[in-house]
Amino acid sequence: MSNRDTIFSAPIDQIGNFTFDERVAEVFPDMLQRSIPGYSNIISAIGMLAERYVKPHSNIYDLGCSLGAATLSARRNIKQEGCHIVAVDNSPAMVERCKLHVNAYRSDTPVEVLEADIRDVEIDNASMVILNFTLQFLSPDDRYTLLKKIYAGLKPGGILVLSEKYTFEDDTMNELLIDLHHAFKRANGYSELEVSQKRSAIENVLIPDSISQHKKRLTDIGFSSAEVWFQCFNFGSMVAVK
């Protein structure tokens, strides 16, 4: 049972930028379940995609792995031999807990958990790369550079799973989906104060792209296919195939 997220439950005089620190790591599972619609479905499907696309003697990268949910989902479903998972996060608190979670389960597929900047990690011999709500925290220029590196390191037929918060070109629809997301959070027990303060903390840190921006970037880089396979309100996940 994870600790309950109460980080923004009391009034904060000066709201700083959201960071993945020790306090966030402590309540992260609860925060994700109550903040991201469909999160559990996305994690489950990552395992299904791993079963289908991971090739023997290849690498799987989970970039921005946080506590390792996507890593473990992929690991549980990999049926091929000689595979190796590299899980990367730049938060010491997340990496520490991710190692504990990974080590709690025995598996034929080894996992290497690295504390590093995902922009500095070499991608090589990959059949699957996971960016689960990670790319949105990079600057637009860094997003393109990272995706180009991922494409270069993917084997032919390899996949990128890209989960993100989306923005929409149509202002009416964009506001509707934002409002529905906030209603989802309130239905999960967050107060108006928590919703408001979290939004203030994250608005300068998480800069979302539209679905069309994502697709154009991926096809420009060279991916043969890129499509949304899951969406709920302004959150979703795409699969791109090399």
TrEMBL record:
For S-adenosyl-L-methionine, which residues are the binding ones? 39, 64-66, 89-90, 117-118, 132, 199
CDD domains registered for this protein in UniProt? AdoMet_MTases
Domain Methyltransferase intervals: 60-158
Q: What is its EC number?
A: 2.1.3.-
Which reactions does this protein catalyse?
prephenate + S-adenosyl-L-methionine = carboxy-S-adenosyl-L-methionine + 3-phenylpyruvate + H2O
InterPro entries, per the entry: CmoA, Methyltransf_25, SAM-dependent_MTases_sf
In alphabetical order, the GO MF annotations are:
carboxyl- or carbamoyltransferase activity; S-adenosyl-L-methionine binding
> What highest taxon heads this organism's lineage?
Bacteria
Q: What does this protein do?
A: Catalyzes the conversion of S-adenosyl-L-methionine (SAM) to carboxy-S-adenosyl-L-methionine (Cx-SAM).
User: What family does the Swiss-Prot or TrEMBL record give for this protein?
Assistant: Belongs to the class I-like SAM-binding methyltransferase superfamily. Cx-SAM synthase family.
Describe the subunit structure: Homodimer.
Q: Which NCBIfam families match?
A: carboxy-S-adenosyl-L-methionine synthase CmoA, PRK15451.1
Q: What protein is this chain from? A: Carboxy-S-adenosyl-L-methionine synthase
Q: Look up and give the organism this protein is from.
A: Vibrio albus
